[in-house]
Each structure stands twice: as structure tokens, then as C-alpha cells.
Amino acid sequence: MPNLTLADLSSEIEANVRRALAEDIGSGDITAQLIPAERLASARVITREEAVICGTAWVDAVFRQLDPRVAVHWQVQDGDKVSADQTLFRLEGPARALLSGERSALNFLQTLSAVATRCRHYADLVVGTQVKLLDTRKTLPGLRLAQKYAVTCGGCHNHRIGLYDAFLIKENHIAACGGIAQAINTAHQIAPGKPVEVEVESLEELREALEAGADIVMLDELSLEDMREAVRLTAGRAKLEASGGINDSTLRVIAETGVDYISLGTLTKDVNAVDLSMRLAL
């Protein structure tokens, strides 16, 4: 599936930010009201650790929605690798707006940068191979598109967005349909042209999926020897995706079997927010 771009996300970003501000500010930031409305301020945001940046458009939207008088001056862009104590951006404008928007802006930036940072780590592990590392649907509710965009900023790739843009036929689907061939044939009838992927747990199931015309076959926790044999048997008739139980120590050797894709839930679900800090000057 094609990777998401910022151009795909303009309405999504605005909606993400509206929800975040409503959640945080509600009927009004009573603490910010301690500061005179006319008071102007500046601020800078730094990172306390190395990271790959993602989320600049969400930060821009936070301050744009709060008060269009706030100016955001970026010193980095999405996809940049930054060092500890590096300044990411500066703010100028009404002090109330800067303080009211701080938490929402940093929440987006620290979360999406965490995804991008983790993805860059994994992408670096397979440099020199032909494999593409794919994300999954294991995302934060309401932030799937944002996280999937962050995946691309870290050098990895998007799998299907949801349950509507591609078939992924797993063990329970196969059992309910009466077999691999039946499931694949029905999928082609339901939505001609949609990618059809099927999960298999053995080389025999792989043969069934290939004969039935699967576009992608997910190899679920096959041995390295069986993955190599799967590549030989498939011979380009379908794309092969390795999945299940993959970690730092096994990723490279799996990539070297010749599979086309490796999917990793950890790209989006096992992340630690990047440590950021905003420093205000009046």
C-alpha cells in the first residue's frame, strides 16, 4: 500500500488538534488567566535526548487554532535526526496561548517523534537488504493516520490503513470460510482490485495460497529455513511478508531470507515518548 504523506492528512491533523484542545482546555485554561491577556512572550522547545522528529504540522495546528498571532519558527523538519539539548522550534506571541498550547503541542510531537525514532532504529538494522518494514493496526485509537505518517518519517512503510482498503485473511477467517482457496476466491468476488493477503503457517498452506491467487502471503512464525524455501517456491508470483515474534536480534537474518516485507507491531505500540521541554521567556 502507498505511504501516507502530509498532503493526505490536512483534515485529519485539524481534527486531531481540535479533539486534543477540547480535551485539555475544555471551558478555558483558568491557570493561564493569571497572566494579563496583553502579555507577550517567547519560548523555545528543546529535546533532552536523541530522536527523529515527527509532528511539526500538529504543533503548527495547535497554535494556529488557539491564537493565529502565535508565530512558530522551526529549526528542524519531519524526518530530521536531532541531538540531546537541541532546539527544535521557537514561539512568539501572547503568553496565554503559548502556555495553553504547550501540553497538546508537545504531546503530539513527543509521541510521533517516538514512533519515527523507533522506526529509524529498525530501518537501520536492515540497511543493504531489499526488505520493506511495515507497520500494523496496533496504533493509538484516534491517532492511526498520525502514527502511520510517523512510521514513514523514520524510514519504514505503511501496511493497510484499516479493514477497508485491503484483505488480510487470517486463521479465523480461513476457518470460517472453509479453507484458504475459498477465502481468497470470495475476497476477489467481494472487492475486485483490492489487495488480497493471506496468513499461512506452513509451506503447504503457502502452496494453497499461491494456487488460489493471493497477492501477498504472510508467513506467520515460519523457521528461517522454511522462509528461504518459501521465497524459492514463490518465485515472484506473490509478495512475501514475514510476521510474528520478530525482534532486534532476528530482524536482519529474516530480511536476508529474501522476503519482501516484514511487519512489526512494535513500530507503533511499544514506544516511549521523546523527552521534550518548553522554556518560556517574558
Short description:
The chain has helices spanning 10-25, 56-66, 95-125, 144-153, 171-177, 180-190, 203-212, 224-234, 248-255, 266-269; strands spanning 40-47, 51-52, 71-74, 81-82, 87-94, 132-134, 167-169, 196-200, 216-220, 239-243, 261-263, 276-281.
The low-pLDDT segments are none
* Top-tier CATH class of the largest domain: Alpha Beta
**Strand percentage, roughly?**
15-25%
Protein structure class: alpha/beta
Helix coverage percent: 40-55%
Query: What is the chains' assembly state?
Result: single chain
CATH architecture of the largest domain: Alpha-Beta Complex
Mean pLDDT: 97
SSE ordering? HEEHEEEHEHEHHEHEHEHEHE
Number of helices: 10
Gyration radius (Cα, Å) is 23 Å
Number of strands: 12
CATH superfamily of the largest domain, by name, is Quinolinate phosphoribosyl transferase, N-terminal domain
How many structural domains in the coordinates?
2
Shape: elongated
The CATH topology of the largest domain turns out to be Aldehyde Oxidoreductase, domain 3
Main β sheet profile: 6 strands, parallel
Report how far apart the termini are: 48 Å
Order of strands in the sheet with most strands:
6-11-10-9-8-7
